[in-house]
Amino acid sequence: MSTFSIVHTALLVVGLCLFLPSTEAKRLNSDRDIIIINKSGGPIELYWINPENDERDLIDDDGELETNGSRLPLSSFVGDEFEIHEKEDPDTGACGSEDSAGNCRFATFAVKQDVNEQKFFIRSDFTVDNGEEIQPKKKKKKSEKQRASTLPPQDEDNRDISIINDSGEKLKLFWIDPDSGKRDLVEAFELNTLDRTLNLNSHAGDVFEAQEMSATDTDLCGTENSKDQSCRTATFTVQNMVQSYEQQFFIRSNFTVDGLATKKNDTTTENYEDLVYVRVPSMEVVETLRPPEPRSKCQDQAKAALDIILRKTTIESSVASLVMAEYASCVEANLTGELMDTNEHLRFLSNTLDLSKDYFENYTCADFNLTTTAPIRNVIWTDKDTNYNIGILHEREHSKIHLLSDFITDEECQAMEDAANPILQVAVVDDGKGGSEVSKHRKALQAGIKVAWDKEEEGDLIARLSRRVYDYANHVLPGLNIRENGQEDLMSIQYAGRGKNDTEPDQYLPHCDGACAGLPHRYGSRVATMVLYCTIPTQGGATNFRKSGVHIEPKKNDGVFFSYIGVDDLVMDNGFTEHSGCPVMEGEKKIVTQWIRYGVDDERHADSLGFS
Q1: Strand-pair partners of 596
Q2: pTM for the complete prediction?
Q3: What is d(CA 444, CA 591) in angstroms, rounded to the nearest whole number?
Q4: Which of 93, 88, 107 is nearest to 49 (CA)?
């Protein structure tokens, strides 16, 4: 029996035999169930501190806290003190902390009076918290001296903020107490993908932490196959800017925080005059800008101020810094005015392009003799000892359009058609509410074909084709590691021509398969499309990318691959992959389509995320 157990048994016996009834009852009511949870990222050891001689008694003799996420339940008493030690490497005798000397870290904690069942989380920085879901305390008012040293003259330091969950995961939001450093859960609010915005009235200088929510039964994040199952966090600070601006904080999929500041009551995103800065990390440089003045006048003002300072016998660095800050603010305001003028010009050009692309669409779809756009260059892609000729038709950081020759075989086309014919139905589009609906903008028949991945090694034609599609997607989008798990079904789509006089021919009007407004990627949404031509109409049926000026005349067994995400910043295309299926006038058009998503797996399936 350990010293911990012996001492506790002795204390209990003494309490039963010697104490007065009131004291006896108090002692009997002081037992507490506790759980120690290792979230430090490495092995730890737990010691009980003997109150009689201050000796450390090892509790987890069997190494119950060896792994990250491991738990050790104990029966303890109010006031018991414990000490956590980072475990030494048996080979080196050192610990794996950032301490250059390899010293082992430790943390202490005590069992409390107020809660019968208590959890103690050992964090990666060797702090200990209870993970309690409590309401945040009212923020203490700063003293006038503190406010004068940190804030410009304002009536109050309260600020309106919005936190937008763009991470693709469920989050908890904590306010960090500036006095104790304790993390308080904000209104027990869970940010999630359906209700992803939380509006708060906060204060300048408030620090918040967004934490990825763990599974309730494991306290781990990610999937079972993830190498790192620790829950990710992101912190941000409410900035000291004028109250007429609302601050927005976007929690991204890589758990970085981007900031946006807009004037309150701004109802249109096109009102550029109301923007301060867009995508400023952590809002660190957002400030109120003075009215723009000529840059030469900014320089004259700075020189005059510096001349006054230089005449003095002593120079205060803070005063000189203030002059330089004023100069920088003056120049910044001037440049901001010029950038707004440039934005206005770009907006005009964008509107002009939107008008011209409608003319391009009508002209190209009506010209049945128009050939495929000439490629920028041609490359060879090799997959499983087979070479494929690839024509690069469009190439930008966030959008790419490739033409792939002989990418699908006749046997694969037939296998898709055989699987689709019994289940063909009228094609549908996104209804804007997470569902689907029949639309006059898309006239066709379609059938979703589930890939039998368990038959891939047996040579299943559809599985072989689908694997080739994902291999090419990873070739074009390196680093995303796109897998077949959780993806949408392969889609067989058929268009029928009913003659030149058909007033409502089968077609698919201009649309984007995924988001195409230049915004950050929404985790789990589409990032690329593969279209494969199996049967070619005798007239019509071209694929048109009107904003990119790309026209593709369908050719049997060819494919068109287009992606609409930047692999470095995960920002979506800004309309260059908007496309249409021109009207089919004569004959049939049969295609195979695969919409490809980033951020799906067996647990987070495309079926649960809606269209696009």
Answers
A1: 528
A2: 0.46
A3: 11
A4: 107
Task: Determine the pLDDT at residue 377.
Answer: 94
Quote the CA–CA distance of 194 and 169 in Å, as a whole number. Answer: 10
Q: Which helix (H) or strand (E) holds 27?
A: helix 21-28
Place of tokens 């609409």: 564
Say if CB 289 and CB 333 are below 8 A apart: yes
Q: Is residue 152 within 8 Å of residue 69, measured between CB atoms?
A: no
Helix (H, G, I), strand (E, B) or coil at 26: helix
Contact 162, 236 (CB under 8 A): no
Q: State yes or no: pLDDT of 96 exceeds 80.
A: no
The CA distance from 364 to 506, in Å, is: 17
Tokens found for residue 461: 């034609």
- Letter for the amino acid at 116? N
Please state, in angstroms and rounded to a whole number, the distance separating the CA atoms of residues 376 and 206. Answer: 52
pLDDT band at 408 (very low <50, low <70, confident <90, very high): very high
Contact 561, 549 (CB under 8 A): no
CB under 8 Å to 410, separation ≥6 — which residues? 557
Q: Give residue 410's pLDDT band: very low, low, confident or very high (50, 70, 90).
A: very high
Cite the beta strand spans of 65-157 per DSSP E.
71-77, 81-86, 106-110, 117-122, 128-129
> What phi, psi does 335 have (nearest 5°)?
-65, -35
The two tokens of residue 564 are 């609409």
Element (H, E) at 10: helix 3-18
User: DSSP readout, 329-366?
Assistant: HHHHHHHHHHHHHHHHHHHHHHHHHHHHHHHHHHHHHH
pLDDT at 564: 97
Residue 261 has pLDDT above 90, yes or no: no
CB 235 within 8 Å of CB 207: yes
Q: How far is CA 429 from the centre of its chain?
A: 26
DSSP for 269-295, written as a single string: TT-GGGEEEEEEETTTT--PPPPP--H
CA-based torsion, 266, 268, 271, 272: positive or negative:
positive
Query: How many residues in total does the chain contain?
Result: 612
SS3 state of residue 93: coil
Residue 334 CA to residue 326 CA, distance in Å, equals 12
For residues 327 and 305, give the distance between their C-alpha atoms in angstroms, rounded to a whole number.
10
Contact 462, 419 (CB under 8 A): yes
pLDDT value, residue 193: 56
Give dist(CA 88, CA 86) in Å, integer: 7
For residues 101 and 450, give the distance between their C-alpha atoms in angstroms, rounded to a whole number: 56
Q: How confident is the model at residue 190 (pLDDT cuts 50, 70, 90)?
A: low
Q: Position of tokens 């003259």?
A: 153
- The string of DSSP codes covering 366-403 is H-TTPPPPPPSEEEEEEETTEEEEEEEEEE-SS-EEEE
Q: How many CB atoms sit inside 10 A of residue 275's CB?
A: 18
What are the start-end ranges of the H helices in 83-221?
144-150
Q: What three-state secondary structure class fits 296?
A: helix
